[in-house]
Design brief:
The radius of gyration is 30 Å and the shape is elongated. Strands 2-1-5-4-3 form a 5-stranded antiparallel beta sheet, sandwiched between helices. It folds into 2 domains: 3-77, no CATH class; 108-295, 2-Layer Sandwich (Beta-Lactamase), CATH 3.30.450.40. The protein is of the alpha+beta class and 305 residues long. It has helices at 3-17, 21-27, 30-37, 39-44, 48-107, 113-135, 164-170, 173-177, 186-197, 270-304; strands spanning 139-146, 157-162, 205-207, 233-238, 255-260. Helix 1 packs across helix 5, helix 5 (48-107) runs antiparallel to helix 6 and helix 5 packs parallel to helix 10 (270-304).
Amino acid sequence: MNFRKILSVVWVSIKRSVRGKLWKWLLGGIGSLQTFLLFGKNFLGVEVPKSITLGIVGLSVIYLIRLGLIFLEEVGRYWHFVNRESIYGDAIITLTDVFAKVNELQRRTDFSDAEFMAVMIETCNGLKFVFDKKTKSKCSVSVKVPITGNVCENTIVLNLCRDSEHATIRDTLTYNEIKHTIIGNTPFQKILNGVITGNSKKFVYKNDNIRASEDYENTSRSAYPDEQLPYNSEIVYPLIPTISVNKSNYDMLGFLCIDCIDKEKFDDKYDVAIIKCASDRLYDLIVKRNYLKSVKPIQHEGTAA
């Protein structure tokens, strides 16, 4: 907190401290002020000069206590604002850098799978940084995609990429051997239903307390001891364009998943907006990558001929 801000907080505290019904009662009329100043004489039996002195001291003590409490409240408000500003400021900077790299790769006429995966992983790392700071906890970010083009309840999804910290921890041999179907995972199933029906309110899946959710299904449970997932809250969004001409027929390419080890860590406003924006950017990049993979064999055949 700089010196100018300290003076500002002090000045606001002083202005607030002289307001209120208490001061209007104490200083609003001669009668009430006289009653307070002569309190010592009337109830303690002291002389008038001493009673007035005690009254002034009493008023000063009450005022200083009030000023101190208001000052602490204003300092708390300031630090809350600074912390909030820092979190979202860092989020904007981080996501701007990440999405700039996504856009740069997408604008190229060609790029390799290695370059594609590097940007995807960097995006996951950027989102993890943002949500780690925002939740003040540990988060993991991953992108799941279907192994076939047609997405339905029995479609199997695989982990395309994950943030660097959790890639080796989560993507174990046991995890990779499991058939992760959409119907076997509550988030994917609910989102798919929302996408099929075109109900945008059901595009996002958010669970604040997974371990307390009795109807929650997740195929990843069997990859962990006692089938205990390493996270307790999550937010999932489909990889679809934010704006679609045909809102009754979205081309869903997978899911962007963000989870946290603690419960009740994701909100319905800013977190949904962040994951929605990220999904839109990744959707365009994946579309470009799929297009390049589809035309390359044709180009090779034409060259050979």
